Amino acid sequence: MSPPDAADRALAVKKRHWRRKRSTLLGPWRKLTRWLARWMPKRLYARSLIIIIAPMVLLQSLIAFVFMERHWQTVTQRLSTAVVRDISGIIDLMDTFPQDSGYENLIRISRERLALNISILPPDPLPAPGPKPFYSILDNILSEEITKQINRPFWIDTIGDSDLVEIRIQLEDKVLRVFARRSQAYASNTLIFLVWMAGSALVLLAIAILFLRNQIKPIQQLATAADSFGKGRAPPPNFKPRGAEEVRRAGAAFIVMRERIERQIEQRTTMLSGVSHDLRTILTRFKLQLALVSNRVDTEAMEQDIDDMQSMLEGYLSFARGEADEETGVFNLERLFAKLKEEAILLKRGFTSTIRGQPEIHVRPNAFSRLITNLVSNSFRYAQNVFVAADHRDGWLILTIDDDGPGIPKEMRDEVFKPFFRLDQARNQDAGGTGLGLAIALDIARSHGGDITLEDSPKNGLRAIVKVPA
């Protein structure tokens, strides 16, 4: 092996090693990002609130921790040290100047000068230690200071809502009991700080939510207007660009785009109407000419050709024109299914329909009637029995059409929706051979913001599923 090949091989080994190492390092991070993506809210308003709340909570937690660790504990440490130092001085005075008649002057000086209420008790055993709280900074610091400065048996009571802290020190022939105000040994303004911190956070959060709602609302209105336009519905009557400059620009661009599309649709409709009028005039002229010569030659084949041309022309124009200019309204499924039932009787076909939920939906009535009629008529043409089930709930209509016909191969189910597509014995061919039935149905479904899919039917035929917002 040549040296360059060996170098390339070593480089490839290093790259593979680096990829494995990078994959190992990034594995936990990718799992975390996937977990966050799964649990994060999907709406912009909720995500924006999290963006505001998360840093605020983190900052407030950091401030609270620094305060608890540095300020509250330090102040409590200093106050407790001062109280224990005063008690230690009283004990030194009692040991240095013993008085058989009592310690009235020392008691008075302690009360007046040191704000400590002391008393001398008989040398009885100290009370048993009481239950300690789960977290009491005063109890821990005060115990440490007494042990460090006095180093004698003691008992303290810091539990409860009392404003006093009781301390008992075991001396040689007596017990010194001291009552001190809790504020002398404890930083009691912590609750006020926490309340102010929480209150200010709530006020800031309320202000942020108020301003954020005003900024998010124009985006929501723009999304609603775009969704309505995509479904062929009229935009909200009060829609106009609002909010930040970027949102206003997006709203203005949407309005211009909508006007351009509506203008193009109007121009196309006008052009197709003119073409339709001119071609129908010519076809009518052909029919009149054939009627005049009908006594001299056999014109049956020519008349059939004209009828086929007129049928194909109507199909082409209907597909090109669409139903986009129709206004939305209330459409009753029960009435349409009743008409399809009558048609099935005339064609000697079986037809069964069920409706789950409200039978009335909000769509473009003529267009949606044509959608369902095209699909059901296609089934009538190639099957003996047709089963239609409508499920209307949660703002969606799911229409399932099953039949027991020959079906369509899986690899051709996307192709049959293409205009003018021909398939041998295809289910989407009209009588005139235009092949626009399924294409028109799909175009109507998508103009409503929905779609059509084809599957195998449990009735051994084809299943067509129409899903549209209604």
Automatic annotation (TrEMBL):
Q: Which GO terms describe its molecular function?
A: protein histidine kinase activity
User: Per the database record, which ranges form the HAMP domain?
Assistant: 213-266
Q: What is its main location?
A: membrane
Name one matching Pfam family.
Answer: HAMP
Q: Where are the transmembrane segments?
A: 44-68, 191-212
InterPro entries, from UniProt?
2C_sensor_his_kinase, HAMP_dom, HATPase_C_sf, HATPase_dom, His_kinase_dom, HisK_dim/P_dom, HisK_dim/P_sf, Sig_transdc_His_kin-like_C
E.C. numbers: 2.7.13.3
Against SMART domains, the record matches this protein to: HATPase_c, HisKA
Q: Would you tell me the protein name for this molecule?
A: histidine kinase
Question: What species does this protein belong to?
Answer: Phyllobacterium ifriqiyense
